[in-house]
Amino acid sequence: MPNLSAMFANLTKGLRDGMNFPFAIEIFAKSKTLKPLFVQCFILNGFLFVGSIIFFDYIAAPLFDSASSSSGALNNINNDNSMDLFWIWPLYTISFILSASWYDGIAEHVAKKLSLHTRAANSNTNTNSLDFRSDLIYRPIIFLVFVTQASLLSLIPMVGTVAGFVLYSWLYAFYAFEYVWSYKGYSLKKRIKYFEERWGYMLAFGAPNALISNYFPFFLSSGVWAMIFPIVSLLKFNY
Fold first, then answer.
1. Cross-referenced InterPro entries, in alphabetical order (predicted)?
2. Most confident listed range (21-30, 68-77, 163-172)
3. Within 10 Å of residue 134's Cβ, how many Cβ atoms?
4. Residue 17: inside a domain
5. Nearest partner of 31 among 105, 90, 83, 95, judged by Cα
6. Is residue 34 part of a domain?
7. ∠ CA 83-50-88 to the nearest 5 degrees?
8. Is the dihedral of CA 97, 100, 105, 106 positive or negative?
9. Residue 71 included in any domain
């Protein structure tokens, strides 16, 4: 069964490439340009964002709950809502925007190192800037569509968890490869075709990331994913 054999080979290769962390770590270790970007990403997403969530949910919130137990549950709910509104959501938005810029900088540096065709090679400054802004808008839309679908499917008993995991695996792989496609000048049609022809590889490639970051509450999952994505974003350059 050649088709089954080919699918198994794609799944195996995707999983192997998706877990090739030594390749990414070696690139970071040898690059003076990438180290500051990685440190900035870790400080923002790991220390500030994830750290503040863990501190509030597992240290501060229990203390507030015990101290304000006499005030009733309504006061506790107000504390949670205030934390989300005035700290988590603003920090999440800032993290998303800054991280996207850092990811692009990482991808650009590695693409040049590996002599990939970049956007700047065949375009003027205005076109290159427009492509960059288009990618910044386009990627969150793709992210939102996948997350919405996965969230809705997760409501279905039994099959929802598996279907959601598959969608998140595809999402993380698609998002990672977006940077390679962008610097190779792939059109949207070509990107989708590339994905469709390699759906098995993409599923396996994104699976480790989905396993690591997808089984926490939403904000915590987002922070963990944003923290490890700089490493994951380099793995597709080995494909």
1. CysZ/EI24
2. 163-172
3. 12
4. yes
5. 105
6. yes
7. 25
8. positive
9. no
Per-residue pLDDT reduced to its tens digit, 31-62? 888 888 888 898 999 999 999 888 888 887 77
H/E/C letters for each residue in 195-227? HHHCHHHHHHHHHHHHHHHCCCCHHHHHHHHHH
Q: In 10 A of CB 225, how many CB atoms?
A: 22
SS3 content of the chain, % helix, strand, coil (to 5): 85, 0, 15
Question: What whole-number distance in Å separates Cα of residue 34 and Cα of residue 142?
Answer: 26
The number of folded domains in the chain is: 1
70 domain-assigned:
no
- CA distance linking residue 191 with residue 160, whole number of Å: 27
Give the tokens for residue 78.
Answer: 């107000």
Which one-letter amino acid corresponds to residue 113?
A: K
